[in-house]
Design brief:
Elements (H helix, E strand, L loop, with lengths): L1 E6 L7 E7 L2 E7 L6 H15 L3 E6 L5 H16 L17 E2 L2 E2 L3 H4 L6 H12 L24 H13 L21 E2 L4 E6 L2 H24 L11 H5 L3 E6 L2 E5 L5 H10 L9 E7 L11 H6 E8 L10 H14 L3 E5 L4 H9 L2 H4 L1 E5 L6 E5 L3
Parallel strand pairs: 3-4, 4-5, 4-6, 10-11, 11-12, 12-13, 13-14
Antiparallel strand pairs: 1-2, 1-15, 2-3, 7-8, 8-9, 9-10
Length: about 375
């Protein structure tokens, strides 16, 4: 059994990778989508897995952006509510959730580029949060000890880690130094699949460290001059660049899970792992297109180097994702190679309609499958 369920997550990401055997089903849950994903889509998907006796080997948070972490916080809150001794003055009873064996999540101290920088970034973000009206992070939150609420995203990543600890769910227990990093991790074996960490690597974290140091310098100058403190870059590039990227292989099938990673960084990680062929290319059965199909993260060169039979894109048109240019790059690269491909979309968007109009599928050698309205997930079945 090998299948990828692309859960309806609006403008975010939420994926369930299922494997194992009918009598011993297993899964990875990768990201949880933004607010609303848990209640409307992920909860029923996981309830179905629980009915079949599925064990979740790991919940994976690719990075700390809200459109990836919020649904996981909701999931962990459900688990906390269901613990013996937990207060249960809630509106609805806890949903059935499969057993979760681990959380894979790089702590903010790692994403910030080092333990020495993280406290300074937290303090700076807290000072910003104290002067802003921020959306509620969720009912699960780490104890506040002497600092103001952190900026959403950073706070949610901290809250998820605290929740896992309180639920006694191991964090990164299969990784060297408790870090999910390209440099530190040999191939992992799950119940069948082989998993390689393709990113982030130490070189990327060094770049992130430089970005945070520049931001801290700007922030300090703004505070000293009485100006409003500088925000983190609008495209949230700092957390995006720290995305956990995984290559999963089983019985001749392969899936590349990219989070919001940048295409050139993904290629660097594949190259460092020795996973590219002599032509500097890799073909996989399924590619989760980086950053919801944003052309800022995946260039035409990336789609010429990393090719696939099926391309999964989770986006609903918000923030311009997916870009029409990104979809065109995928189709153009496949046509140049003479490959027949499938695009699997969680939502029809202006960009997907434009693609079909300008590059008719029958003429260009591709098909489009869109998650049906009202359905919770679209499934890509990779069983032999």
């Amino acid at each position: 059994m090998l299948a990828l369920d692309v859960v309806q997550a609006a403008f975010g990401d939420c994926l369930v990778l299922r494997y194992g055997s009918p009598d011993r089903p297993r899964a990875l849950l990768i990201d949880g989508g933004p607010s609303g994903t848990w209640e409307h889509h992920l909860r029923p998907v996981l309830a179905g897995l629980a009915e079949r006796g599925t064990v979740i080997d790991a919940v994976v948070l690719s990075h700390i952006d809200n459109d990836h972490v919020t649904g996981l916080l909701d999931l962990f809150e459900e688990l906390a509510r269901d613990r013996p001794g937990a207060t249960a003055d809630r509106q609805a009873p806890p949903a059935s959730v499969p057993r979760i064996r681990a959380l894979w999540h790089n702590a903010f101290s790692l994403a910030a580029g080092g333990m020495d920088i993280a406290p300074r970034v937290r303090e700076a973000l807290a000072s910003m949060a104290a002067t802003e009206t921020l959306p509620r992070v969720g009912r699960i939150a780490p104890p506040v000890t002497g600092f103001a609420p952190l900026r959403p995203g950073v706070a949610e990543g901290d809250a998820l880690q605290w929740a896992a600890t309180s639920l006694r769910i191991p964090i990164n227990d299969r990784f060297a130094d408790a870090r999910v990093l390209l440099d530190d991790t040999p191939s992992l074996r799950l119940a069948g699949p082989r998993v390689d960490v393709v990113g982030p690597g130490e070189a990327i974290l060094a770049k992130l460290r430089e970005e945070w140091l520049r931001w801290l310098a700007r922030h300090g100058r703004d505070v000293a001059s009485g100006r409003r403190p500088s925000r983190v870059a609008p495209d949230r590039s700092v957390p995006n660049l720290s995305s956990i990227v995984l290559l999963v292989r089983s019985r001749g099938r392969s899936i590349l899970l990219t989070g919001d990673g940048r295409g050139d960084h993904v290629l660097d990680g594949l190259r460092d792992r020795g996973l590219l062929d002599p032509q500097d290319r890799l073909h996989v059965d399924v590619l989760k297109v980086p950053h919801h199909g944003s052309s800022r993260n995946a260039t035409p060169a990336f789609f010429r180097s990393v090719t696939a039979t099926t391309y999964a894109i989770s986006a609903d048109g918000r923030y311009g994702n997916p870009d029409a240019e990104c979809l065109a790059s995928i189709v153009d690269a496949a046509r140049a190679d003479g490959r027949l491909i499938e695009l699997v979309l969680t939502n029809e968007t202006d960009a997907s309609r434009r693609l079909v109009a300008e590059r008719p599928p029958a003429e260009w050698g591709y098909s489009v499958r869109v998650l049906a309205p009202g359905e919770h997930a679209v499934t890509i079945d990779l069983a032999p």
